[in-house]
Amino acid sequence: MESPQPQSPARTTGLPPGVEVAPLTARFIAFLIDFLAPVAVMITLLAIAGALDPGAGRVLLNVLAVLIGIGWALVVSWMYATRAAGPGMRLMKLQLVGLTDGRPIGWARFLLRAAALWVLIGSFIGLIALAVLLPRNPRRQALHDLLVDSVVIAERPLAPPRAGSGASVRQGLLPPQQPAPPQPVYGPRPSPYRQPEPAAAQPYPPVPAPPNPASTQFPAAPPPPVVTGPTEYPRTATTARPQHEGWVAGLDDGRDLEVAGLILLGRNPQGRPGEDDAELIKIVDETRTVSKTHLAIGVDQSGMFVMDRGSTNGSSVTSAGGLSTPCPPGDVIHVAEGNIVSFGDHWLEIKRTPATQ
Description:
Elements: H1 24-51, H2 56-83, H3 87-92, E1 94-98, H4 106-121, H5 124-136, H6 143-148, E2 150-154, E3 247-251, E4 256-258, E5 263-266, E6 279-282, E7 295-300, E8 303-308, E9 315-318, E10 324-326, E11 333-334, E12 340-343, E13 346-352
Parallel strand pairs: 5-6
Antiparallel strand pairs: 1-2, 3-4, 3-13, 5-7, 7-8, 8-11, 9-10, 9-12, 12-13
């Protein structure tokens, strides 16, 4: 069955809580500082050199202009590739990081991004693409950012470096993902998002007899008989709540979906063979970041799970502590109450209704 078409939701970034996309005005000012300021200095020196008579002074200014340009480019590139921000972005309190890991993007991706940006700036069509895509994209990504999977955000602690990097570890945007062993589809599997189950109640330990006083006017009481076997104590009868009950998915457009079976979300979701009973939930997506059948959610004997259905833009799960992990397509990921599941530019919150007595 299909849900009624909802009203168009507010556009969201799909980033973990607390991560803010950089404003375009601040990005433009940072660009002017990082790239155009040294160009202006070089042009000024070259103009002064051109006004001088041929000689050592003119040659010196020309060489100085070239050295300033090369030195500035190397320093700025190093800062972006390894420290996530050049002088301009540091001044504007911005950072350039990888979208899926929250780390500096490295030399290769930075040089590719810079080359793509200057190609866009140097062509009329490219400038039009920048002017159209940057304001419309919720994460303010144009072609050069999409090419290397980067995003410009407000300044925050960077994600932890990869193992063996030698850098200090700080809390970050998205933690590194450890590969999980293959698991059967829709079967139970361990998940980092499941909360640990309470330990089973243990029998109460025997209460030792109070010791006799050291001195008394009455004869000492005889010692208690020796117990030759284990003493059994009755346990309080409790009924554990089934793991598959009470789960709710709160969509970012305000709808709450009771998860009692398989639910498919997307722009126009369609079930696979054998999924005739799946509930089909349509997502209004102006930016077309959500695939036709993007995400599956459901419950099994281990609790609630989500699974990316091979979407174009992927899905991720963010824990209550703000740590996010991408969902490999086709893998069952069990989730816990309070987790946030991002899919495209949309998200849903994992909820659970209180247990009935």
